[in-house]
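Input structure tokens:
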């Protein structure tokens, strides 16, 4: 069964949320709707279980809608943000739209039909399913994924392919180093490499650490996979994210871009870029020419600035944030 797409509503006025519940009651069978008065609580919940669409107010205490939209864009770029505000500050709205922080801007009172159309339009950006469509792709974002210069493959914990971006679909269709068997299980070109692939996937799943793997396609050309374990939301099975490059080079985000996206120092961005290639913290420290102790200090700062709590989450945030540019 396909889960309903998740739509989160954030407004500090309880009456507004009550009105939205009532106005959208006909959508209860179509959308999994959550309502939040506290934007800080909403953001923390979204980080753990990302919605497909977030509908937010601008004028809110502690964290206003501008800051909430910015954090959503940076930390969970797969989520499409719609502003529903009583404010007519169109200069703010224009800035948010131009910066790519929001999908649409509506002024209260907004006809329910218009808001519903906007939410449906945002949901249409979801990734198409492959296989039996047992899960949704809202956590990754169709547009960002298809713009990546490498393949993204998502499997369950047992290696069964759930969905992929356009490059990943082409890679599978062309049997370019990775294939899918009759059971939907991802496999490499050769039996021994399939064992290596599944071993790396198990390691990423069991340790919750990033794993890197070099393989070859049928013609002996190198491919490189970076494997991340994804958090499972409530009622969802665990997932693995594979970022695959056909030229044998790991995904290589530039440190200066990472620095500008997340406000990192030069040293922190170099370490983050190395880890985004699938290196462990110790390996990244050696790559950057710093001690392990210094690397741990940098990593603590990186986690604080990016909102990540572990390496797999950090790498995923970096790659998807860059993809959305």
């Amino acid at each position: 069964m396909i889960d309903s797409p998740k739509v989160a509503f954030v407004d500090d006025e309880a009456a507004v949320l009550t009105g939205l519940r009532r106005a959208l009651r006909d959508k209860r069978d179509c959308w999994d709707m959550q309502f939040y008065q506290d934007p800080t609580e909403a953001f923390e919940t979204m980080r753990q279980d990302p919605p497909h669409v977030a509908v937010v107010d601008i004028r809110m205490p502690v964290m206003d809608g501008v800051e909430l939209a910015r954090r959503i864009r940076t930390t969970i770029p797969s989520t499409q943000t719609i502003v529903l505000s009583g404010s007519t500050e169109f200069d703010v709205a224009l800035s948010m739209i131009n910066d790519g922080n929001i999908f649409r801007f509506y002024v209260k009172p907004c006809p329910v039909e218009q808001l519903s159309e906007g939410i449906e339009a945002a949901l249409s950006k979801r990734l198409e399913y492959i296989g039996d469509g047992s899960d949704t792709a809202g956590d990754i974002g169709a547009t960002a994924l298809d713009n990546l210069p490498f393949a993204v493959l998502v499997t369950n914990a047992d290696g069964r392919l759930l969905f992929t971006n356009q490059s990943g679909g082409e890679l599978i269709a062309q049997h370019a180093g990775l294939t899918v068997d009759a059971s939907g299980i991802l496999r490499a070109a050769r039996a021994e490499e399939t064992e290596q692939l599944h071993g790396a996937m198990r390691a990423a799943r069991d340790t919750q650490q990033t794993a890197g793997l070099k393989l070859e396609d049928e013609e002996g050309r190198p491919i490189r996979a970076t494997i991340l374990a994804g958090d499972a939301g409530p009622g969802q099975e665990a997932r693995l994210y594979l970022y695959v490059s056909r030229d044998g080079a790991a995904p290589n985000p530039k440190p200066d871009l990472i620095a500008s996206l997340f406000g990192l120092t030069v040293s922190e961005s170099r370490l983050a870029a190395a880890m985004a290639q699938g290196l462990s913290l110790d390996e990244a420290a050696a790559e950057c020419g710093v001690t392990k102790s210094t690397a741990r200090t940098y990593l603590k700062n990186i986690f604080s600035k990016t909102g990540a709590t572990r390496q797999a989450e950090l790498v995923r945030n970096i790659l998807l944030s860059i993809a959305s540019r």
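The chain has three domains: 6-123, 142-245, 255-323. The first strand starts at residue 6 and ends at 10.
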